[in-house]
Amino acid sequence: MHAALTVFLKEVRENLRDRRTLINALLTGPLLAPALFVVLINVQLHIELDKAGKPLPVPVVGAANAPNLIAALVQMGMVVKPAPRDPEAAVREQKADVVLRIPAAYAAHWRKGEPAEVELIYDSSRRDTHEDVSRLRDMVKRYARIVGAQRLLVRGLSPALARPLVAADRDQATPQARGALIFSMLPYFFVLTAFLGGMYLAIDTTAGERERQSLEPLFANPVPRRRILLGKLAATTAFALVSLALSVVAFAIAGRFIDTSRLDMVLDLGAHFATFVLLLMLPLVLLLAALQTLVAAFAKSYREAQTYLSLLMFVPVLPSVLLIVVPVKAQLWMYAVPLLGQQLGIMQLVRGEALGAAPVAACLAGTALAALLAILATMRVYASERLAISG
Amino acid sequence: MIEVQNLHKSFGAVKAVEDVSFSARDGEITGLLGPNGAGKTTTLRMLYTLMRPERGRVLVDGRDAALDPLGVRRALGVLPDARGLYKRLTARENIEYFGRLHGLDETTLRRRCDALIAALDMAAIADRRTEGFSQGERVKTAIARALVHDPGNLILDEPTNGLDVMATRAMREFLFGLRAEGRCVLFSSHIMQEVVALCDRVVVIAHGRVVADAAPQTLREQTGAASLEDAFVQIIRRSETRAA
Ligand SMILES: Nc1ncnc2c1ncn2[C@@H]1O[C@H](COP(=O)(O)OP(=O)(O)OP(=O)(O)O)[C@@H](O)[C@H]1O
Ligand SMILES: [Mg+2]
Q: Could you tell me if B174 lies within 8 Å of chain A, comparing CB atoms?
């Protein structure tokens, strides 16, 4: 039997007997992420979609000056609140988000048919109030437009006369793509699962074995160290892959618990999605396994390796965050960058777009090359004299 | 047959092994005797190619360790200073793992395992996980593991370390058995009595240098000491004054 296969089988058998590894690789990792995801998504959908229909409480100064306007606004969802004594101060001190003031001159202007002024008092540097302010502004504008149209009609003119130009919104985002923004963390969850799935094996097979002092007798066998390493890497990769596959299945099931009707999109985390995710992730899993083993080989103990790897775990979140903060147009070369390529590819799958052959090839080749380099680097560390000697 | 020629190895400023030469013949038990820190473990590690000597040569059955490390390891059975068993595997699985790494086929492997388990009297523990094994049980398992491929040469680093009188005696009988089979047995120890009881030949090292190389009887005669322990102490002292 090939020596690497012997090592692989032994590592798998040994780690299947370790409860902590099993729970982490096959239970916590693959199941926790989807569960967390469903909860997060549902909460977020709730917040986003509820806002639009919610009543909008607004303190109003001088409501008595424009009873008709107020009545119309209330019908559109505004709730009149008592006016603060000093509206400007109230907004500055964040006691109110936006205050509507109707000056005493309003009625006079209105009757004369002159533009009557209402004031929206708010603080534009407060991002969290933007939405309320624009909702109120829209309501006022809508009322103004209706009244304006009525006045023209009364004079026998078409309201269209006053609207020589119309800017019509034609949003090209498919419902899928709009929803996808919420899903941009999905690729990170997959990477995280693969990371956690392989982590304990990477530590156990290198730092752990050295700490237990079994690396020295192991290296006394007539097997080149790189073959031993390959067996260990294969075992780490296998655990990570199983972990990832479970996670993909769990997401497919979890997808049914996400209320997509509210999202106005079709969410398909089914077989096609799963297959492509696994394909894109395959070289990345190998890369992660090699990097984890490399890091573990530098650590002096199991605990030290654990500490290093827990830090390394946060690196894969970067592309996800980056793409959310600075959305970029995907270029072909980006697919060849490990992590970034998977992020882009999986996002495209979530958006329901077909993945072209070129991006898939770039993604696989780029990450596979990185994995190869990481494996070669790990082989060098494995060949070093110091590796086997504990203490 | 193990031949060691002018080995050198240092760790930074520490010269662990300086110009060590000796040979261990087939059908003999050779003892590497020396106080703590003398360089025994380092020397043995260069023999089984875990470390590369800075200078010098190691030959096992005529194979140069620098040129053919795999061939050398194939010809060696090794019990390192660190026994390093896999706790989640049974004793038998530990032995089988190394047998497979040596490329044994399954029939041979089963036969060798059964034979070693019988010879080392470990039938009661063979199918237990090694987690919680006593020192003696650990050493037995590690020795069985080292012998699974039936090597012509055996290197043991302090094999009786931590063993009680009964286990030590059993180990001694076992090593005599290996000698009778015509194998070359090389072991290290810092215990005089043990070396006397076991060895056909003693190589004494101190501060990384060979300070004596003879049969136990000859050593005593050379120094004129009453007991071997006295002889040992004298040899070490002499080497220290010479080094100073
Ligand atoms: N990996 C290492 N790094 C640094 N120094 C080392 C290393 N291995 C051995 N040494 C040093 O080399 C010298 C010889 O050590 P070695 O372990 O070979 O002695 P020994 O004869 O086996 O001792 P003992 O009877 O205590 O096992 C010691 O001074 C030791 O500190
Ligand atoms: Mg030692």
A: no
